[in-house]
């Protein structure tokens, strides 16, 4: 039996035969000759013999020279003649041998993106397809600054789910998120994700919210809280979501709070949208807080809707006075409205 760890050091230090030691270490991929290889590598770099240095670094046993320090030395080496930079010579040689390690992959992609970002992205995509690069979170971070599609590929293969999902959002592929999370057995903070979609790809937020509610990852109320909370106050997308959600469920008593919220946010910021909802035949909502909505209609100067919703005679009299004073109540509306009141209430209103 041969002691692999001590065989080469024995030949080098005890027998004083460094050259045979290097030959044996290289041939059989044995440890113990690292210092010899490093010394020789430094000599070749100092002499500007970058091709030989690259060959030595690539073929040294145990990958002893395939380190970030080696990359740094190639990067710092001055150009010789009209030849390519030393580090590119190194990467070219390594790629001929096989896949790059993590540090090499990052170094090569950094170099490519620095000098030819547009052409370089196609080259990096080719290397990824050929599996010549080691996927890592750091490589994904580098690519994310230039191309989210490439970054998504790297994050996906490197098993970095949070950043894979962010790339999906940036690429307008929010619909893939739920299936991806199931496949990876990954449970994100769904509310945070919905907030990211709202911020990065607002047009996708309604469909993504519907998907989360369908999968029971979030309730409709939780969706509303996200879209309106944290300073977002996204009335438009909240309205789109609630209209679809409530219409698909029909007019349910348990949705009273959501019906009220839908009308409230629009009466406060877009009264004409609220009016369209209240008058539409497509949305037959009856369980919202009518007195609260009536007060909001009054504040929004939708006096006819306020009259329809108020039940208190004092409220009705007050709104009638405001509506008549501003000429916003039509004769047809008033005829029908008074016709629906009891004779006693109608007379009381007319007297006042």
Task: Tell me the layout of helices and strands.
Layout: H1 4-14, H2 18-28, H3 34-46, H4 50-59, H5 68-76, H6 86-97, H7 102-115, H8 117-129, H9 137-144, H10 148-157, H11 161-170, H12 177-184, H13 190-200, H14 205-214, H15 220-228, H16 235-249, H17 256-269, H18 271-279, H19 290-299, H20 303-309, H21 313-325, H22 331-340, H23 343-351
Helix pairs in contact: 1-2, 3-4, 4-6, 5-6, 7-8, 7-9, 9-10, 10-11, 11-12, 13-14, 13-15, 14-16, 15-16, 16-17, 17-18, 17-19, 19-20, 20-21
Strand content: under 5%
Order of helices and strands: HHHHHHHHHHHHHHHHHHHHHHH
Query: Based on CA inertia axes, which overall geometry fits?
Result: rod-shaped
Provide mean pLDDT, rounded.
Answer: 89
Poorly predicted ranges: none
Number of strands: 0
Query: Mind telling me the C-alpha Rg?
Result: 36 Å
Our count of helices gives 23
Helix content: 55-70%
**Classification by helices and strands:** mainly alpha
End-to-end gap = 113 Å
Largest sheet: none
